[in-house]
Queue: 2 jobs
Job 1
Amino acid sequence: MLRFYRFIFCATLLYVGSADDAKLNNKKFPKNFLFGASTSAFQIEGAWNLDGKTESTCDRAFSKQPSIVIDGSNATVACDSYHKYKEDVAILRDLGVDHYKFSLAWTRILPTGYANEINEAGVKYYKNLIRELKINQIQPMVVIYHNDLPQSLQDKGGFLSPLFPEWFANYSRVCFELFGDDVSYWLTINEPFEVCATASNSGPFVDGIDTYICALRLLTAHAAAWHVYDKEFRNKQKGKVAMALNGEWMEPASNSTEDINAAETRMQFIWGSFAHPLYYGDWPEIMKTRIAMRSKLEGFNQSRLPELTQEQINYIKGTNDFFAMNHYTTILVKAIEEPEISSPNSTADIGVFTYQRDDWLSSSLSWLKYVPWGMRKLLNWLKDEYFSPNIIITENGWADSTGQLDDDVRENYIKEYLSNTRDAMDEDGVNVMAYSVWSLMDNFEWISGYTAKFGMAYVDFNSPNRTRTRKNSSFYFEKVCKTHCLVEKCED
Ligand code: NOJ
């Protein structure tokens, strides 16, 4: 009997973490499909105060208050990519990727935060990185902002300042000028939803009020950068500019109309709070209705969600040249009674209950479960909602706590998420152009420090050399990059 239970237990583990090759999509990805890997400046570079770089909000929040990081670690050295970028590019070259998604550290380029003073050493670092990539035929996919706001600008109000869009557009102009001849894909702001959801780490921020002001500022800042590119650089540089949005797939907890609507509501709040304005000019209808309704009951004389003027609508609408999305996991969504009215609360504004299934394989991060079919459903939803956009999957990946080289689960995760991507392209007509694994190598995972390892390469954080060693998943991904095929042999 015991043996029987053990069999069931093992079978369940195998089911959730291993890929059955016979069930994988066996059609080749198109020749022009781009495979890549991603990182971000703060999480890998280190050298936080070297060669003229000044303090960012991340340096302030994570490196000066180790207590907010689970393992008490910090990112002052991280992977030391500031000194070891050639080793990073060597791994990318061996993987055979087409592109590398990385971010620029604002305070490495503009130490005052403003565009009045350019730090040559910082510029040189990114020029060298881009040159090294190009020598190896790897396209840079450049993120202008990935969480590390100049502390000087935070001190002047950060995202809540009406000047934020102007600061960001000026910084973006400098980036386009300096690097744009070599960049075809620009990502203005990475995961704006998370940026606003975590902004309270860096200064005073009222949830449910500042959350939406922040969203509007980020949308306006993105649009301002897009307009700068469009007017001043597009003709010559011929690149494309998008925001990198993120979110889960929201699966209704049951077939009931209430749960289906609840899941759709959450999709609209998470994806739609940025994508809807980018594609339609305005907030999703359900966001407008729910926040206005709750604001009124809370005693506000107008909605906590800022109403967009026609001018703002025209300015923001149509400023996403492609749909960049970071996606990792799925959650189940259940309808609930209207949450109690008290002080403003952005979760109560959505007004649903979310959970994940216990039998979904868990990573070392509680939110990240292995649910590859969510990718296909999400891609279809984005296609239907936003006029069949060209989609670039800018991040997708799996974390473990060990950094083990035999990282079968990560390999299977990549395999199955890519297989679902291929199904969506092939059977559902979704236009997916590119896919990047998060991450090239283990790095500093925010409050999880070095306890959550996402890399296709292991980094020895105990060694001053920060030695990189490729994991098994990287050899599988190399095969995919080279053959465009997920299985042993693909149909042509
Ligand atoms: C989203 C973020 O862009 C990145 O900074 C983070 O490390 C990964 N996802 C994994 O959580």
Job 2
Amino acid sequence: MSLMQISDPLDKSTNEKKFVVGIDFGTTNSLVTKYSEGNFNFFKSGSEEIIPTIISISSNNELSIGKKPTKNSLEISSVKRFIGLSDEEQKILSKKYNYNLTIKDNMTAFEFHGNKFSIIDISSKIFEYLKEIAENQENKQLYGAVITVPAYFNDTQRQAVKNAALLADIKVLRLINEPTSAAIAYGLESKNQGKYIVYDLGGGTFDVSVLSLEKGIFRVLSTDGDTMLGGDDIDFLISEWLSKKYDELANLSRSKLKQYSKLLKEKFNESSHQVIENIEGCKVTIDIKEFDKIISPVIDKTIKIVQSAILESKVSISEIESVILVGGSSRISMIKRLLKNKLNCNVLDDIDPDKVVAQGAAIQAEILSGNTKEDILLLDVLPLSLGIETMGDLSEKIIPRNTSIPITAKKTFTTFKDGQSKLLVHVIQGERELVSDCKSLGKIILENIPPMISGMPRIEVEFQIDADGILSVTATELNSQSRATTTIKPTFGLSEEDISNMISEANETADEDKNARRLNESKIEAKRVIYALEQALSSDGNDLLSESEYNDIVTELDHLKSLVKSDNYEQIDNQIKNLEDKSEFYVERRMNKSINSLITGRGVDDVL
Ligand code: ADP
Ligand code: MG
């Protein structure tokens, strides 16, 4: 496999340095960081470099971002867990957080004190805030940012993050995987060689990657993880334990319990044996053995995932030199102990696990903007296989997981039915065999396939993944060179087009959007009907129809053709129906004819 250089040589000729930052958009905390000549500057929110990824709304409707909520305010936290999820998935997840969901502009939205925010609104407000504090403290306009995402994020989630940043008017230089970013921070500072594991346990996500570092070249050999596993889950486990063990605490609200659980958990690292805490007048005592037992379901899960990532990478455990610890939750002592024991290697934790991801992103931003002469080669891998749906609800993988990106891959398919003129290409992501178990990313329709018997058309489906891990799909019928609309539109989330509409605050209403879609669908259907009927008429219209019957059908057909040019989908639909009614007898005659010829051709014995 060849190495790909993906550091852009953006005009290095100018002396003016561009103001670029790395953004670690975390589930719990976010950081915005600049790197320059060996130094990092972490822009502050108030006095904090580690900025809570929280929006809070006070009872008098004041919005504040990046601050721990005050007493009477309502908070929206863990937004990153919701980003890029379908409405249904958001509904299920919101139960865990006690959020009230509603609908705004046809999208799921969170409702607080009567205010409605979609997940993209909330995320972009956070990005806006990060941009604002960086610009104020640097006293310069931001040129662009490298934004990190969990390695396990699928295409829809990546698009959603990118869209939220774009809405906040941030130029996204690149999205990079968080573990890769941590490796950049360590690789450049320690110039180590060898095989490494990046273990990243944050607030809401767990990521593990197996990497090899050689003279400043990073290769990700495999990635694994869980987008729904992190410090939050540890807090839930402790909450459960608290409310079971202490009757006085059983009636506390979930969010209060979670707050106290987090406090208890974070205290553990300083005082190793026991933590005693007064919670709402109740004296809570917990020793380290009990603590380890409570949290072990989460920690054990992470260790299993580490082991499966190692298996996948084909690296043997003895080859692993170190584990790089990333994420606030990696401070838990049980994790270090287990990793050391199971992998028999040392644990790298000398860069602050809260900052290491942001540092790598800041370095990468500096390189991509051409501000530095440092050269870096970076290989990243696809976290989940990508493929399309084939007959029988089956998934056909086009790019297997852990393939290095950027990449282009093609596969050729054919049709199932005779004369099939359209083909639906359903793009899916995931490892399972059945489409219904994979994640649907979008659908494109390949039209105008000339009528051929099944198996004749050669339909080439090309997947292209750019350096951000974002996918475009092209389907081409090779005999006729018919080509489908190339960009894949995610099933949910926003397209680039939607974003630019929102930015320019176009006044298009939801109804108009719906009408446009309806019109498009009607036109596609009309074209299909026209095509089929014209094909039929030219092959046997003269044989099966009288002159007046023929002319009647052509008149209705011409009427539909002229309506297709209009913008009235109701009229188009009515005329489709009318044309179908008026040509029904002809379709029947054709069917009889084909049965006749089948019988005649094969002989009676074959048919009975
Ligand atoms: P994310 O990347 O998801 O934003 P972070 O890396 O900022 O998350 O980690 C936040 C998580 O780390 C929270 O769940 C927090 O409770 C946890 N955390 C922070 N410090 C400690 C600590 N000392 N011990 C255990 N967990 C901690
Ligand atoms: Mg993180």
